[in-house]
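pasting for ref. prot 1 ->
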Amino acid sequence: MNTNKNSSAQALAVSNHRSSNHSTAGKLTFTKAIKTCFGKYTVFEGRASRSEFWYFFLFANILVPFTIGFIEGIFFPESLELAWMEPAPLDWLLSLFYLFIFLPYLAVYIRRLHDTNHSGWWILIYFTIIGIIPLLIWLCTSGDEKNNEFGQPVLPIS
């Protein structure tokens, strides 16, 4: 009788341990999202979660340019006075970075559109005057919770 209580308590403890691990194991962290995007730099099929896309967006458009600008301000303070008149000393580094991330950025953008059940070709409306609005809406909305024509939902759904 006592062993039955112990086995029930052990089963409950294992169940609680698994559920607590499950809640954090599938979370996409900032660094995991960056690694995923660089790892899938030529993968244009499948789907990308909102967190994967927006973490990479944050990395590519805010974190890296800010860091390069900060370094530039420390080592080349005189360039801050002429910032609007001539290129800054490390502009070449930022240009090289954007060249380096072009494919991973394009791939995650297309996979994010797939998550909202839109073809990757919709990225072309970005080049119209008003096309940015629907793209921004699609990038911000939740992905399909069920399978769509581009694959299974990304777990965790975000």
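and prot 2 ->
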Amino acid sequence: MTWFVVAKHEEVYEELEKHALTLKSKVRWLKSKEDLADNIEKGLVFLTVSNDDIIEDLYEELIAFSGSNQGIPILIDIEDQVDIRKAIRAGAFDVLPFPVPPETIRETVKEAEKILLQVKVESEKAPVKKDSPEKDAKIITVCSTKGGVGKTTFTVNLAAAFAKQFKKVAVVDLDLQFGDVSMFFDCKPNKTIYEWVKEEYYGQPEKLSGYMYAVNEYIDIMAAPIRPEFSEVILEEHIQKLTDYLRPDYDVVLIDTAPYVEGNILTALEKSDDIFLVTFLDLPTLKNCKIFIDTLHSLGLVKKTKIVLNRDSKKRGLNKENAEEVLGMKIHTRIPDVEKVVVTSVNEGNPYVYSYPRAKISKVMYSLAQDFFGNPVKKQKRSLFAKKVVNEGRLV
């Protein structure tokens, strides 16, 4: 394994060379970042940061470097002035102090080399031919301005309704801190969007299959990170690429979001063909929804937005007309308030479209799915007479 060291100070090179010899690696010394592009091959790239570097420029360079797939960047922070969180978000694999403790560099190099080896193995595999032509998925983002309105419940049941139409569905959990999509499907994925970004994005980001959890034959999920702080690593560019890579392999990509607006969610909204904004009949929720609609207006996204009125009930003191008046938009879909069915479904980790297929609430979801693709193609059933003829050998 080759280490590329970009350093102005010879003592940095000498120390890293000493560590490299211990770990049986080679070292190449480059005196400036400009030399990097002409000399780089797949390997570890050590970038030193000293007091004469402009830190903000460094973060921008990291973003550009990480997107170039040239190697794995590791920062050596000489003056203890790097914001580690910003550096990791910009694409640094790790930030090490100087002098570097032997055990620290050993652990970092081991993890980085593991990723490089994985990328190499994957690239040497023969490409798998697809039996079916590429799809062109409809990308649908489900959002809300308040937690607890039933957004995730709506998302997983819409996915199940599409699956009942024999559509291949990817569900992306973009509530990166506290996403619950996995729980709603009663599953525990080993890998999440965080692992995809850290392990694959800067090598072969199109390799998604190992990070999608198969719920059943038709539904795969890209789970949210298992720890809230891991969400810091996920950037807008990752969401943009993720949707691009999912589109050819699925009929529908459903994106469940957090109940607020930030860069990753705005990227998902911009990439979407349709947006479902979930609300229900109380004034604070409707007020916040109206503010969000105004934001969508300013972004030019309101034309592809549909309002979903969840827990629709005559007992709430407000009605559909009141909601439309506050929002300034027509209600597209009304989900009936069937608390027992929904709560049981959530607690069992089984969408009510599966567990209560004849319930009124399930029929609403079927109807909504059919709006996108029409009625599912049903297998033609033989009549009892036809079966009898077959048994008698008169029908081939």
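The domain at 2-124 is CATH 3.40.50.2300 (Rossmann fold).
The chain has 16 helices and 13 strands.
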